[in-house]
Amino acid sequence: MKNDIKEVLYSEEIILRKVIELGERIANDYKGKELLVIGVLKGANVFMSDLIRKIDLPLQIDFIAASSYGHSTESSGIVKIIKDLDYSIEGKHILIVEDIIDTGLTLKYLSENFNSRGPKSLEIVTLLDKPDRRKVDLNVKYVGFKIPDEFIVGYGIDFAEKYRNLPYIATLKKEVYI
Ligand SMILES: O=P(O)(O)OC[C@H]1O[C@H](OP(=O)(O)OP(=O)(O)O)[C@H](O)[C@@H]1O
Ligand SMILES: [Mg+2]
């Protein structure tokens, strides 16, 4: 697995520091409110697990599973919901947790879908943001790192379902995916 890595962009230590910073900001912003944190599977699984333990507030969690990349490095443009939320979000303060925003199509689709269910508020936190690749406008309140237009893996993020268990975030050698 390590032979496929081109460059480590963010080490475990750097990621942890960012997760703590985001968790503190979120805890501060939602003080006194009932918060429901929704992770977008599978990619956000690792970030979500670390982040919720750095939000010092009573909160609830739920998950939705969505996929649009499959085994490609380009979005198919069609967002498929593979598993829906378990509970209603009507009247609740919702925070969507994503690992990465690329074209923005996944979150555009999910935000519109969630907004139609009548939440009290809806915000997004993403660990990584690739603004140069955006195809649709999105309002993202919490961003960990802005990254250049390169295909990345690790810390939950895959290529063809591999590399999710790398503890750091890295770029892949081109020959691996071309
Ligand atoms: O902004 P976008 O271009 O829509 O890309 C971002 C989405 O793509 C990845 O999910 P993917 O569809 O690969 O499913 P996965 O989380 O199971 O890997 C990632 O986890 C985001 O959810
Ligand atoms: Mg993926």
From TrEMBL:
EC identifiers of the protein: 2.4.2.8
Cofactor: Mg(2+)
Reactions performed catalytically: IMP + diphosphate = hypoxanthine + 5-phospho-alpha-D-ribose 1-diphosphate; GMP + diphosphate = guanine + 5-phospho-alpha-D-ribose 1-diphosphate
Domain Phosphoribosyltransferase: 10-159
An annotated GO cellular component: cytosol
Pathway: Purine metabolism; GMP biosynthesis via salvage pathway; GMP from guanine: step 1/1; Purine metabolism; IMP biosynthesis via salvage pathway; IMP from hypoxanthine: step 1/1
Cellular localisation: Cytoplasm
Transmembrane segments: none
MF terms in GO: guanine phosphoribosyltransferase activity; hypoxanthine phosphoribosyltransferase activity; magnesium ion binding; nucleotide binding
Primary localisation category: cytoplasm
Family designation: Belongs to the purine/pyrimidine phosphoribosyltransferase family.
PANTHER family per record: HYPOXANTHINE PHOSPHORIBOSYLTRANSFERASE, HYPOXANTHINE-GUANINE PHOSPHORIBOSYLTRANSFERASE
Name of this chain's protein: Hypoxanthine phosphoribosyltransferase
Native source organism of the sequence: Helicovermis profundi
